[in-house]
Write a structure and sequence with these properties.
- Helix 1 packs antiparallel against helix 2 and helix 2 runs antiparallel to helix 3.
- This protein has a single domain, classed as Helix Hairpins (Orthogonal Bundle).
- It is mainly α and 100 residues long.
- The termini are far apart.
- Helix content is 77%, strand content 0%.
Length: 100
């Protein structure tokens, strides 16, 4: 296997682990960390293609994704704290505030 395929396999593995964590786990904090893992898997793929194509667009886009991920984590944790004040649980299946 070439170096490029190893990096792409690593990025795909990170993304798949993030998807599994987001779908299987019930804890909201673990779900948020799994979303961050998915974004990091995509960043590895962007940087890999950027390096092997000699183009900086993928690396610049990865920096923007990191910035959006930091904002997403801050907003997600703020929403989680607000929900925890209303109902003292962080389990995803027990939070049903929008149901009728």
């Amino acid at each position: 296997m070439t170096a490029q395929s190893l990096y792409l396999a690593f990025g795909a593995t990170l993304f798949c682990l993030g998807v599994m964590g987001a779908v299987v786990r019930r804890n909201m904090i673990v779900v948020l960390m799994s979303i961050e893992l998915m974004l990091n898997g995509v960043n590895v793929t962007f940087v890999t293609f950027s390096y092997f194509l000699n183009n900086l667009v993928g690396q610049i886009f990865a920096v923007f994704v990191i910035t959006v991920a930091a904002c997403e984590a801050a907003v997600g944790l703020a929403i989680l704290i607000a929900l925890f004040r209303l109902k003292p649980t962080v389990q995803v299946d027990e939070i049903n505030l929008l149901k009728w």
